[in-house]
Amino acid sequence: MHVDEEQPDEEIDEAFERLLDEGRDRLERPLWTLLPTGLLGGIDVGVGILAYLVVKHETRNQLLAALAFSVGFVALLLARSELFTENFLVPVTTAVAEKGNWGRLLRLWAVTLVTNIAGGALVMWIILVARPDLAEVARETGEHYAELGITAQSFMLAVLGGLVITLMTRMQNGTDSLGVKIVPAVLFSAVLVGAELFHAVLDQILIIGAAIAGSDITLAQFAGALVWASLGNIAGGVGLVTFLRLVRSAPRVEDERERSTAT
Which whole-number Å values give the CA distances from 225 to 151, 155, 168, in the listed order? Predict the structure, then answer.
């Protein structure tokens, strides 16, 4: 039986071109588009948090609650919203291939992070006003992340958080099938929450929720957790997943650079 050995390479090329096209689109978005897209991303995560809090309140089971949370990442996928940690593979690869601007990458990261947290915090406030019975579980959950502190353990939890979400993005980028993309959205978001990994957006929203519910969390705790989780997420997502993807695709990246230079 004859096996077409070129087919895998063609599929990789197609996936790489799809990645660059999406990356250019993200980096070239005007600010007035980035703002609502980031806010909607935070709102989508907030819906996942609602599901998480309800299930955890009723069952006290972390794994079942984590699975319920995956509705938030499915919403992110289907609504094509923007999440801070989903921008560690696609736009970074585009910038390295010189198909995008590094300044715009930093703008994308900063705007998305701030608007994600703002949108999620709004939903968290609405949740606790609508369902005050969830205040206790919201306080317990948020305090857990606020008390992680700036330690080697919390940093590694953040590294794993960035790795998990960037790997999810990589798997979704490998297919055009929306149905297939939903599978990693469910599985990897459940791993993120079930393992209580440290995530710059999700956990800051939960920390804000604990504060709204009456927890005595300081601004220094919030700021420290935000910076520490962000750095760890970037180290895991960009350093472990995106870097290796770029090494594997080095010839294609170099080709794109030469084309950019030629034009």
Answer: 10, 10, 23
* CATH number reported for the structural domain that contains residue 79 in this entry: 1.20.1080.10
DSSP 186: H
Q: What is the reported pLDDT for 67?
A: 97
Q: What percent of the chain has pLDDT over 90?
A: 66
Of residues 62 and 94, which shows the higher confidence score?
62
Confidence at residue 259, expressed as pLDDT on a 0 to 100 scale: 62
Q: Of the ranges 2-6, 58-62, 66-70, 116-120, which one carries the lowest mean pLDDT score?
A: 2-6
Q: Cβ distance 44 to 76 under 8 Å?
A: yes
CA separation for the pair 74, 72 (Å, rounded)? 5
Alpha-carbon gap, residue 169 to 62, rounded angstroms: 24
On whether residue 221 sits in a domain, the answer given is: yes
Looking at residue 129, what is its pLDDT?
A: 98
- Asked if residue 259 is part of any domain, the answer here is no
Tell me which residue of 256, 230, 234 sits closest to 243, measured CA to CA.
Answer: 234
Instruction: State how many domains the chain has.
Output: 1
What domain range includes position 100?
13-252
8 is a domain residue: no
Q: Are 18 and 254 in contact (CB under 8 A)?
A: no
The candidate with the shortest Cα–Cα distance to 150, out of 219, 225, 237, is 225
Q: Quick check: 79 pLDDT over 50?
A: yes
Helices (H), 86-218: 90-96, 102-130, 135-146, 152-173, 178-194, 202-212
